[in-house]
Design brief:
Structural class: mainly alpha
Helix content: 55-70%
Mean pLDDT: 88
Strand order of the largest sheet: 1-2
Radius of gyration: 17 Å
Shape: globular
Largest sheet: 2 strands, parallel
Distance between the termini: 37 Å
């Protein structure tokens, strides 16, 4: 988070969404049939909601309703990400959608990188908050490339 105003806005938006989602989910799931409507219904989360098939889109809303971490994540007392120890041995790579409107990089991603002590991350063009749905092949390629890079440096 860049500052308290980011945290407050995120909490307010998240709690508002959670308040209405149980009521809206049945309608949203019905709208997931046609690809054009699916893209519209999922537009806040992803650039290409139409690439997700209807059954997966419906299950997506069910998964959100079952996410138990949301209450903890939307707690006003949630502590900021603590910096990692300088001598950490765990390699990290962050992958972020350029068009993420839920957690915009400038307000949320860069502070995360700063807290983790990372100089850069992979920014995926034409991807939103859920790049694994917008461009699953690219996300998998980036992850596998990073794993190969880490494994190669150990040999």
């Amino acid at each position: 988070w860049r500052g308290p105003e980011d945290i407050q806005k995120f909490m307010r938006d998240g709690k508002g969404m959670l308040k209405w989602l149980p009521l809206l989910a049945p309608l949203l799931k019905l709208a997931c049939g046609p690809a054009a409507l699916r893209k519209l219904v999922l537009a806040r989360e992803m650039q290409h909601g139409d690439r997700m098939d209807a059954a997966d889109a419906r299950e997506h809303f069910d998964r959100i309703l079952r996410m138990t971490i949301l209450d903890e994540f939307l707690d006003e007392n949630l502590a900021p990400v603590a910096p990692l120890p300088a001598d950490r041995q765990v390699p990290l790579r962050v992958i972020w959608g350029v068009n993420d409107v839920i957690l915009p990089f400038e307000r949320f991603g860069q502070p995360l990188l700063d807290a983790l002590g990372l100089k850069s991350c992979v920014m995926l063009d034409d991807c939103g908050h859920n790049p694994m749905f917008d461009d699953p092949e690219r996300v998998a390629s980036e992850m596998l490339g990073f794993i190969r890079e880490v494994e190669g440096s150990r040999n």
